[in-house]
Amino acid sequence: MGSYTQNDAVRYFIGDAINKPAIHHESFEQLWETKWKAPCKMGVYPFMFGAYKDVEPVAQAIIKAGLKEPYDWDEYAGFFFPKAEELAAAAKTAEEQGNKEMACELYLRSSALYRVARFPTPRSQLQLQAWELGKKVFYAGASLMEHPIAEVLIPHSSGLASEGKTIPANFLQPPHASSTNPCPVLIIFTGLDGYRTELAVWQRGWLDKGVATIVVEIPGTGDSPADPTDPTSPDREWSSLLDWVRDTKTLDHTKVIIWGFSTGGYYSLRAAHTHADRLLGSISLGGGAHHMFDRAWLDKVNKLEYPFDLAGALAHKFGYHGADKLEEFIREAPKFSLVNDGTLEKKCCRMLLVNGSHDEIFPVDDLFVALEHGSPKEARVVKGKKHMGEPESFTVILSWIHKLLGLDGDIRSQLVQLPSRIKH
């Protein structure tokens, strides 16, 4: 087993791009104009369930205030609260008047504002409040959907005494699912900044295909009970989760697939090896494995593709809280490498790795590291695209899942459901 040392000279596929700061780090104005305005108009990441008409005035207020890095996270979050509160109140009124469709939309639009307020990960009191309020309005809206998304509290039966006792997750299963007709399961591992309240956008599409979905957060994010500083804590969390799937008779525990998004892809790659016998397949979309923890990488990423300070957000996610802990995280990060701990040499379930060739969040080099170790795996690199290789990557992954589960192959009907569609 090779071991990475901090003195290694490392070169990455993105080449000189690692030394070219992105313009959106200059100010929030540049972030909005060059990176966020377009996806906000489309109603896609990071504005799932959102409306441009809600976000644009908030963005202009932040621009007028001159916010830029390093952000005061309470100050930043505070700009989103008034509109989020207004929408939540309007949603409640609509619900009381029996207008479920309007109430559902307004609750979800409120959740989108709270989501961006706590982006990328709650690091201040107001951002923590935004996370709690965002969950409240999200589940209020989700309960009014045609097929309501439920929050389930899965017992963390394999957890340590020092860890949380439950794994909060989104759960949606087809109406026909029963003990005599159990359905396959897709478990979605969320990312560094996209939690279960956002990746819920995928759930209805899979229900239409007869697949149950569970959306769960990774250690150090959302409400995950796992110890973020312990590289083995996810193994316990997934054991608890898979035990719950096994014991839920409407679910077919022999047809379980994991799909990890971004940082979640690191965990889906790990799970493919630690729980190989319990999974039909696993997908890492934009996930890392080894070089994502290089000092040479972490020293640069705060100024690259990610909207904010990626190294700082990752440090917080892995349990190193506070700006003064960043250096400690970078120094100790190699302990999380799936090469250094031997994970990639273990038995692996069927595995699909997908990323963009020019990813500046987690180096595409890690995809090749995974291919070079252990069992043979399947992979697709989307040429010329950055993190996660969107949107082409979604077509690759959905087609792979459809073939693995023997579904109808009509992936377009799922993809068209992802962008927000505002009626009110």
TrEMBL record:
InterPro entries the UniProt entry points to: AB_hydrolase_fold, FrsA-like, FrsA_esterase
Protein name (record): Yellowish-green 1-like protein
Molecular function (Gene Ontology), one example: hydrolase activity
Domain of life: Eukaryota
Keywords on record: Hydrolase
Source organism per UniProt: Podospora didyma
Pfam families found in the cross-reference section: FrsA-like
